[in-house]
TrEMBL record:
The gene is RPUSD4. Gene3D superfamilies: Pseudouridine synthase. It comes from Denticeps clupeoides. The keyword Thylakoid does not apply. One of its GO terms (cellular component) is mitochondrion. This is Pseudouridylate synthase RPUSD4, mitochondrial.
Amino acid sequence: MNQKTQVQTPLSKTLNPKLLQGGLSPSLLIPPVTRLQRRVAELKQFSQLLQKVHPNVLAKSLHRGLLFQNQDFIAINKPFGVPVEDGPGTTNSIKSVLPVLAKMMDGLTAGSQLHLCHGLDKETTGVLLLARNEETAEHIRTLFQTHQVERKFWAVTVGAPVPAEGVVDIPVVERHVAGPQPHFKMSLSPVFRVSDSGEGLTRVRGQRQAARAVTRYRVLDNGQGCSLVELQPVTVVKHQLRVHMAYGLSCPILGDHKYAHWNKLAPQKLPEGILKKLGLEQNKVRHLPLHLHARQLTLPQFKGHGDITVSCFLPKFFTSTVKRLQITFPEKPQEL
């Protein structure tokens, strides 16, 4: 019988305040006055903590947040707002601190390295795998590409998907959005449309650039106009979960300002009832972080091991939001 290993390790409780001095925005150090100001300051503290600190501070946080390790790879929690890869305007990235993190993992052993195996969006939190050598990294990348890695994400969505459980199987393609702020977004590229008579479906010609995208979903609970939804991407396509929820099910992920509107870049528009529960006004919604968390990842049999499942604790801003919306977790959550 295959041995299945279940791993769930808590992250660090709190970053050392001395290490963060000089790394946080001055606005986080100004005492808030009104209830709204306190709420905005709270969101900033939750979501901006590691975006502009010294790289060594980020590496230390990732090290303390170790979820799993063996001789082949490690699993860490990717924090909100920190990109996996380097890019224009990037202050910190997971990739840029890998040399420092590798030394922390193995002391000062010569030749210690860590390699990226897959990606997560800058705004997404949760389980991220890092290989100890390039051979292992390539093997894990192949497992992702051949859809052999099972991943479960938790998301808070605006509205409730109908039906409460199902599969979204709609190709996704990147499109240029014209207007005052020209930009690119991923969008749906369906292969069927409603017929002119409105009584059936007509197959349409698919776009060559479109990638097949399949997402399983199920609603875990509802509350105050929002839902807690478990998402399982069958395929690996850029922004697949966000696009399927926003455009396929008309239930955008809370805090997803990129896909809140198709023809412009603007903060997500939320109903008054949800704003009240979140303690916000519409003109402060831009401070809401994306509520999408890579909750669990399972690697199939690997180098003589059975299946390995790694779970990641929820960010504090996520559990705070769920509590405010009076949504019930399927199990008692543990915060980062």
